[in-house]
User: Fold these one by one.
Assistant:
Number 1:
Amino acid sequence: MTTGSKRPGPRAYFLITLFALLLVLFPFLFWYYTWFGRPLTARDLDQYFADKSKPRHAQHALVQLSDHLARHENVSRWYPNVVEQASSPSLELRETAAWVMGQDPKYAPFHDALLRLIHDPEPMVRRNAAPALAAFGDPAARPELAVMLQPYTVPAPIAGKLKYRLKLGDYVNPGTLVGHIEDAEVRAAVPGEVRALDRESGDTVKPGDPLVELSPDPNHVWEALRALYLVGETPDLEFVQRYTHPVPGMPEKIERQAELTAEAIPKRAAH
């Protein structure tokens, strides 16, 4: 005698369906609340800037203001919030605020904040502040713009035995793990292609020793050349002219912009 298999009851089907729904819903909600492209209302912007517990909310609001400014919309109501974020302990907020402030070079408090950010300890903040300052016509941006056109060296932050986690030709972004010194992580502060490993894995290094040489990032070169078109001076030609001919890894628009910048600097100096 055979016994029939017991089929799942309605409760089991409900639980299975609920579980399947959650598998779809959770990733969607995570994407929805973290994607910076999600439009924010004016009320959302007010709430996001006021929410000090979630820095990503303020960053989302800054990105939205940047989009509005790109469409030439008036968002000056939130300018004091942008200036406030420029003093945030969060690297991402200072970095994003610097970029936003370059999109309205008529607002004097932005200029004042950028003059502080151009001396920020973090390279990515300085690199966003420099083109923004150039939009104000301020030559204080020039030293950092010249740095953006040159290779970047990742230094050893502490002393100890080094172990690399990357190789020649790898492309890194800010935050990419370069290696370890003892138990401490060493991460890249700026983007670029690994051109040279200045030590060997297993070497003992001292603070400040060069570890990795990164090539200039094409986007940073592009922004620096455009900014130097506005504020560059004769000493900057040395760096600009490196890009007036084809450079491996650089798009064609870099060469053309370098030519325009190299022509503009002497003309402005003559006046």
Number 2:
Amino acid sequence: MKAILALDAGTTNVKAILVDQQANVLARSSIPLSIDYPQSGWVEQSAEAIWDAAQKVLASCLAQGVEHEVVGLGISNQRETLVAWNRDTGEPLAPCIVWQCRRSAAICQAVREKGMEESIRAKTGLQVDPLFPASKIQWLLENRPDIRKLADQGKVCLGTVDAWLVWNLSGRRRFVTDFSNASRTQLFNIGRGTWDRELLELFGVPESALPEVVASNQLLGDAIPLAGRSIPLCGILGDSHAALLGHGVLEKGKVKATYGTGSSLMTLCDRPESSEKGLSSTIAWKFDQIQYAYEGNITVTGSGLTWALALTGSRDLESAVKRATELDSNGNVYFVPALAGLGAPHWDEKARGAVVGLSFDTGNDYVVRAALEAIAFQIKDVFDAMQRASARLDTLLADGGASKNDWLMQFQADILDRQVQRSQTVELSGLGAAFAAGLGCGFWSSTAEITKVVASHDTFRPVLEQDKRNQLVKRWNAAVSAVKTYGLAQ
């Protein structure tokens, strides 16, 4: 039986799945990644570790599915993380600067002070923020003279994680990225579909160091032999875009939320022209043509819960969450997890996290409960911004690790006053990458065929009374305002 192999290189894990023509997962493998915090606000990972984990999970999946004919390999990836490597030797030149890293905040502030933010937003659809690779590249070239020298000699590759993986998987023959990942660099003109020379000059980025931009389902040649097999590389998507495709969203009116380390909401649109500044405009993918989308990126969701568990000394996630969700109420305790600033729709990099509403009878379980609720409140903030940018959205499609928690999904439905449909496929970004690869190699003939094999969903419907909902949201908004006021005082 024929199958598609998909590699999903996330922030905390690298995964691989093997998928048949009905989108059934035939095999799966996962390896965790470590994250380093060398200074306050800095977040790094090892490029070698990402590549090593990728090889291992691919080999494991192929070993499990040895009886299947694997006809294509697709990739989904954590997006705004920057990888720099030597074009001649293929060796990384520095640790990966992870998407959460804030080291380039001063560069972003300088760009704003030049009055460039609106021009950049018009070209790229993105707010000026350290999240995006443009300022990360400028920081790297300014602070590493050795890398700057190599870049001037045309010997540096600067790319996102997908480019690093394709480079290695292709035996260093292809240095490419797809339209979805390129649109997240803040160097790509999403209207023209090309690297923007004015932005390259602004951030001091040599175009020779950037990858070729290809379609999201483009055939890229055979990968290096994997477990003795020759498999065509034929699909790349950023992980949030891949999750959208994995849900089968191919028309406007639906929004998906991925619950991960951070969270991303995305909904399709025509050529983006919204004045809603809390959202980004992006390219969902390019198959036959460019498909645009609105997106809201929340910096801290699942990682905020991890932080709260560490703060309270809770070692067992499952039992801590169980105790927190069995409380009669949240005790009026709210956690705003601005641990690396606030992302969409607030975009306040100076904001810092806070737990508000504490009293003498506040226990650890209330802090964990507040961290869980904060995930849903932040999703609501972006969901509301998307409705202002487009039209009423009746359903939230959910995926990602935290979405497995039934209590959180019900609270999300209650706080949105909308139904939430949770995908029954855990590896949704991987599935989206498989769909892109399958379209590239003819495994699926069209996007219409994909919609017929999308996995089913679990549905959660709102039951909370309106007065109670309004009270919870009002107090959450007050907590966010307090955090943003603190940022102004810095």
Number 3:
Amino acid sequence: MLHGISDWDNAYANGANIPRGDAWPDLWLEPSKSYRDRLGAEGRAKLDLPYGDGERHRFDVFMPKGSPKGLVVFIHGGYWMRFDKSVWSHLANGSVESGYAVAMPSYTLCPDIRLGGIVAEIGKAVTAIAGQFSGPIHLTGHSAGGHLAACMITANSPLPAEIRKRIANVVAISGLHDLRPLMRTGMNATLRLDEAEALATSPALLRPMENARITCWVGAGERAEFIRQNELLANIWIGLGAKTEIVEEPDRHHFTIIDGLTDPNHVLTKTLLSS
């Protein structure tokens, strides 16, 4: 049986296809603020640190109780158009409790920037943050953030060679790795993707850097396009020499798939921190 997509907006619509989907992102706001407040009171939160001159060139860092074993960088999603670092602070808990420093950057949002510019900003953020910590670097991100995390380990990554060498692992959560379908959606009025930029910023259409290692993680209850995109990157990159893994976590949709990052014993956190 032949399959095709006639409604591209629906194919990439998450909230409208999840029961009570309109409850997010509000469900993240209180635990995120509570986590920032608690670690701030303990002297283990450093907020609004600059990595550049732009208004949104800021990052937060959450510290473990002892010396960090390494660095985790979480890159937020929102289709490159919404949110900032403050919505996701509680997701640092699993890695912080495992002994890692966790940094969360914001970045300029479309339409004030093009996708290629966001990739460059994240490269600048990771480079600046990594300069403040020693040890291995573990990158992760959700949705658009999963795309941006994967972009950091392509052959044309904006990261300098010395930072690339420190990247121990990447987990792209519900990542978007071939951006060409988004050109068919209404959101492209804001993203302004054209064919050339989609080709240049789609990890699945780029070669991985040498020794790239990535886990593509998605909820089994997500939209079919997110599951397809998840498999796509891992399947292509394994043929180009990268080490890849595909995980479809049962009973998770697009908004609950990140919950495991709050728990140091959850397999998502353990996978992220592996090397």
